[in-house]
Records
---
Amino acid sequence: MYRTAKTGQKLMIEILPDKCDFCGCCVGVCPEDAIELKEADIRIIDELCTNCSKCIWACPIEVIVFNKEGVLKEVI
């Protein structure tokens, strides 16, 4: 099953939460306010994300990545 972005396309952006330092750089650049950051939890709000990739380029430690399959991979 694919995650769907606001545009109806497959969601192609994924956050690796176990590597995130919760700095908030991605939240500040998201034009759709599609990234939710609460204390030590971060997630993409699928219904708001447009796959613009601004968050990927803003992340200083590269924990937001393209997921070419559009499927959320379980992070262990």
---
Amino acid sequence: MLVKIYAGEIAKTRVRANLLDPGIVRPRLRARAFPGEDPSRLAPPDSVADAFLALALPECTRKVVTASVWFATE
């Protein structure tokens, strides 16, 4: 909700506001925070990197994206 409000406030500028929810991924920090968790059940961080990169492109018009929706629609 906060990102949508901010996007509305900056709509007439060249600044864009996007939100990406990558879901649960397995960066090293998560492994330290949840040592008993099986990392093989989680997606690696690089599996969602393309979604972040696509949001940075000038032609991107998406505002709110979850990684699972992104990959299902691309």
---
Amino acid sequence: MSKERTVWRDRAYFILMGVCLALFIAAWGVVRLYSTTAAVVMSFVALAIPPIAVIVANAGDEASRRR
């Protein structure tokens, strides 16, 4: 597996997890003061991000899976 691909996957993972954290903080720190429904929706979106981030981080080429 190439180094560039690994760096890209790591960067994508940290960006996705950063977005997840930002959504939770924004939802319950600020948005809940204006709309609880919007805060709950933001939380559900944030809950869907970690599994996607893990799939992106663990995705590899087929050759590495066969070893």
---
Amino acid sequence: MNALLSLPGQLDVLLPITALLPLCALLLVSQSSPWQSLMLRGILGSLSTLLYALLGAVDVALTEALVGTLLSTTLYAVAMRSSMTLRLDDRRQEAGGEEEELLQWISPLNLRLRLMTSADMISGQTRVRHGWLEEGRTLVLTRAALAKRLRNTPGFERWQALGGSLRLQEDAAA
């Protein structure tokens, strides 16, 4: 099979594309946001696909495009969307402004907030819950590792300054 471009004759086209691969890989591993990493992984796969196609390895390019880029990016996006949610039971009598403060607090951890109400339990949504929100801005968590990460974020000091507290469920500490 003949390549679309020959290596000696078209180095000026292949070299910039090839140079982008390690640059994109370095950007990929340096990201703190999983969503940005996922997008860069898609770009890296697209660059690889382009390079394989230009060098004449169309079968490898097609495999990389379909499996390495499209399928893996889609599966990772679905998995991240479902697993990166902080699910809390809402045990307050009246909703206050705590949701905005919680969102600001957990945003450095790239988490979404889902406050589960009694209506969610009645409708059969029995997903894993990470804790609950009580009256008086008290957040109770069931996992010690999550509590430790939340205490180390900058938003924790603001939460405390607004009268909030964070505690670990008693049986989770053991």
